[in-house]
Amino acid sequence: MLLHQVKTLLTSLAILALFPAWGWAESHHHELNGTWKLAPARSQFGGEPALQAGTVTIYDREHHIYVAESFTYDQNGQTVSYRFSADAPHNASIHSGPDSKAKPKWEGNTLEVTSTKDNATTVERYNLATDGSLVLTVERPGHGPETLVFERQ
Question: In sequence order, what are the residues at sequence separation of 6 or more whose Cβ sits closer than 8 angstroms to the Cβ of residue 134?
């Protein structure tokens, strides 16, 4: 009987110990908020054309996640800009056309945006590095992994 009570107590304490960690992770989501400028020299482009400029804006407010990206790179002498934005409740899908959707969600302290366009899925993960920079890792089918580093503006 006593052994059962001790096991129950230890299990309860272990579960309670997880709650502060979960709350800490959620309370730090706002640390990614703001506009970030690409640091091309610190980034790895995974065999893709090097980006000359880029910004990422992130706002997590009241469990709604807003992400906007703008990138410029040189491709065969032409400048190409790419812009993406998502503003949705945590873990909701955003449809921006019949064959395009994005789903932002938090995985601990990592903001993960999974987007699908033309049956190809891209996963972007945003993390705060120990030096205060924003690290964006991008995984796309048929491409090498990209690691983009941003500094707060």
Answer: 32, 36, 56, 58, 126, 127, 128, 149, 150, 151, 152
